């Protein structure tokens, strides 16, 4: 499994030679950030899944910071954040919003955003701000809950898959001998 994952992940020499990352070389070249085992892979997947829901271009930066703090595989954590993309981000955010409403006990239905009115632009802007503020709390709570749930599920799934692969390898080795 390790060989299979290494094909898709950058090596540590690419970071060492990058002129933009030179100031962070001592931190980024820590051996545990590049070692790939069941612990570092599971932690990296959890970090990537949790940080994948961070808005905007901060996903990979968040995953890199989590990898450095928790000493898990850095490239894998950053790679996993790519599960959010232009096709998946809207359904994930809608799911997070619904989870947030459920956790907050909001029984009201979804409130549609105000219709755009170019003749009353200032009034529309104020109505849009109020609508966004009303959606912010359920969305924020839902994003945290969904990120934590995905991270836990990813961590457990990687640990289980790695264990199943090891057991199968042990059995194949046992049959050969």
List keywords for this structure.
177 residues, mainly alpha, 8 helices, 0% strand
Give the overall shape, derived from the CA principal axes.
Answer: elongated
**Helix-strand sequence:** HHHHHHHH
Q: Please, what is the average pLDDT?
A: 87
Treating each run of at least 4 consecutive H or I residues as one helix, how many helices?
A: 8
Q: List the uncertain runs.
A: none
Question: Compute the gyration radius: what is it?
Answer: 21 Å
Hey, roughly how much beta strand do the residues contain?
under 5%
The chain-level structural class is: mainly alpha
| N/C terminus separation | 22 Å
Number of strands: 0
Main β-sheet: number of strands, strand sense, barrel status?
none
| Share of helical residues | 55-70%
Describe this structure in words.
There is one protein chain. This protein is mostly helical. It is 68% helix and 0% strand. Helix 4 (38-51) runs parallel beside helix 6 (74-80) and helix 7 (89-104) packs across helix 8 (121-176). The longest helix has 56 residues, at 121-176. The radius of gyration is 21 Å and the shape is elongated. The two termini are 22 Å apart.
Summarize the topology.
Elements: H1 2-6, H2 12-17, H3 25-28, H4 38-51, H5 59-70, H6 74-80, H7 89-104, H8 121-176
Helix pairs in contact: 4-5, 4-6, 4-8, 5-6, 7-8
In short:
This protein is mainly α and 177 residues long.
């Amino acid at each position: 499994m390790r060989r299979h994952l290494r094909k898709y992940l950058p090596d540590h020499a690419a970071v060492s030679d990058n002129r933009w990352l030179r100031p962070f070389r001592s931190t980024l070249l820590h051996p545990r950030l590049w070692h790939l085992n069941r612990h570092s892979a599971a932690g990296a997947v959890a970090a990537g899944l949790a940080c994948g829901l961070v808005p905007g271009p901060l996903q990979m930066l968040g995953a890199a910071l989590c990898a450095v703090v928790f000493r898990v595989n850095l490239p894998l954590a950053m790679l996993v954040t790519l599960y959010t993309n232009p096709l998946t981000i809207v359904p994930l955010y809608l799911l997070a919003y619904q989870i947030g409403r459920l956790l907050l006990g909001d029984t009201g239905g979804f409130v549609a955003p105000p219709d755009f009115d170019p003749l009353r632009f200032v009034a529309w802007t104020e109505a849009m701000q109020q609508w966004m503020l009303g959606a912010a709390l359920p969305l924020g709570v839902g994003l945290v809950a969904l990120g934590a749930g995905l991270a836990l599920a990813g961590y457990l799934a990687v640990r289980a898959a790695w264990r199943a692969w090891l057991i199968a390898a042990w059995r194949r080795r046992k049959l050969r001998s």
